[in-house]
Amino acid sequence: MKLCQGSKKLKCTQCNYVTKLKYNLLRHTKVHDDPVELKCFQCNFTTKRKQGLLKHVKVHHGPAEFKCLQCNFTTKEKGCLRRHVKVYHSSEKFKCAQCDYATKWKHNLLQHIKVHHYAFKEFKCVQCSYATNRKDSLLGHITAYHGSEELFKCTQCNYAAKWKRNLLQHTKVHHNSQEFKCLQCDFTTNWKHNLFAHTTVFHGSENFERVEDLDEFKCLQCNFTTKLKIYLMNHMKAHHGSKEFKCLQCTFTTKLKRYLMKHVKVRHGSEEFKCLQCNFTTKVKIYLMNHVKVHHGSKEFKCVECNFTTKLKQYLMRHVKVHHGPEKLKCAQCSYTTKLEMYLIRHVKVHHGSEQFKCTQCKFTTKLETYLIRHVKVHHGSEEFKCTQCSFTTKVKQCLSRHVKDLHGSEEFKCIQCSFTTKAKQCLSRHVIVHHGSAEFKCAQCNYATKWKPNLFRHTKVHYNSVV
C-alpha cells in the first residue's frame, strides 16, 4: 500500500511558480533569464522560447505537409498523421482478457486493467477512507479535500485557488487586456478558441484566419450539415453507424463508446463517492464535488448588480450573462433573441431544422436527440426507480431525486417578503416571480404581458398563425 503525502516543492525565487520537478523549474527560469521576446512575422504571437516560435509557424502558417494515403486527411505534424492512421485505418487492437474492452492504445489497456480489474486499491488517503488505483487521482483528492492553506493567489484581486490552472484562467479572463473581437458582430472574448468557435458556427469561415479554407461538412446519407468536423463524425456514428456498443449486464445499447462507459459506471459500477458530512453518495465524482460546494461549502458568489447569490461559480456567470449582459444573439430566420449561445443553437434545431429523430417502437418523432432518449426511457424502458420512504416510482432518476428532496427533505426555502416556505428551490423562484416580481415580458404586437417567457412564446404563435 502506497500512502501519498505531500512531497518537496521547488519554488521560483522571482515569482510564485512552484513545481515538484527540477527540470520544470530550470525551464521556467529561462523565462526570467532571457528578456528577449521572439515575435511571429505573420501574426501577433510572441514567445521567449525559440522552439515555441518554430512550432507556432509550422502549425499556423506552414503548408500541410503530411497527407494520409487512405483518405483526405492532411496535417502539419508527423505525429498527428501517425495517430490518425492508427485510429482510423489500423485494425490492430489491444484486448482485455477479462472483459470485452478493446483499444488501439496499449497504455489505455493497462489503465483499464488497473482501474477495473484490480480489487486491491494501491493508493490510499491517510486522512480519510478514499482509495484509488491512480496516483494522480489521489493527489487531486488530497489537494481538493485536505489541502493546506497554501493557495495560488491573484496579485490584482482577492481571488485564490488550490489549482494553478484556475489562477491562470482567472488572470486571463479578469485581468487580461487583450480581447479577440468578431469582425461581423459585437462578440468579444478573452479566449481565441472561443472566437474561433463563434465565427465558425455563426458566420462561417471567410473572415477568420485559421478557418479560411473551411466549408460546411455535409452528411452523404442525409441532409445534416455542420461547420465543425467533430459534429459530423459524431452524427455519422450515432445515426448511420452499424457498430453498436452493448452492455453485458443489461439491454442498453449505444453507438457511442463514451455513452456505454458512462452507463456502466453509473448503473453497474461498484465504486461510490461518499460525502463525509452527510449520507449523500454518487458514482460520478463531479456530482460529489458540486454537492459539497452547494450543501456544505461556506463560500458564496454574489452578483454585484442584484441580490443573487450562489455557491457555484458557473451559475453566477450564467446569471450575469442572462440578466445583466448587454449583448443578444439573434436568430437569422426569425425574431428570436437570447443571451445564451446554447439556447440559440437549440432554437435553430427545433424551429428551423429539418432533421428528425424517430422512435423505433412507436410513432414519436422529435428534433432533439435528448428528447428521444428520454421518451424511450419513460415509455419503453423497464427500469424503475423506487422511493425508499413511500410508494413513489419513476423511470427517470432525476424525478426520484426531486421527489425525495421536495417531499422527504429537511431543507426549507423561505420567502423574505412573506411567510411562504417550500422544500423545492424552483417553487420559491416561481413564487417570487408570480407574487412579488415586477418584470414582465410584453408582446410587441399587442398589449399582452406575462411574467413567464414561455407564455409569451405561446402567445406570439397566435399572431403568427393569423398571418399565415
Automatic annotation (TrEMBL):
Pfam families for this protein: zf-H2C2_5
PANTHER family: FI01116P-RELATED, ZINC FINGER PROTEIN
Domain of life: Eukaryota
Protein keywords: Metal-binding, Repeat, Zinc, Zinc-finger
UniProt keyword Acetylation present: no
Membrane-spanning residues: none
GO biological process: positive regulation of transcription by RNA polymerase II
UniProt feature coiled coil, ranges: none
GO molecular function, one term: zinc ion binding
GO CC terms, sorted: nucleus
Designated name of the protein: C2H2-type domain-containing protein
Domain C2H2-type: 10-37, 38-65, 66-94, 94-116, 123-151, 152-179, 217-244, 273-300, 301-328, 329-356, 357-384, 385-413, 413-440, 441-463
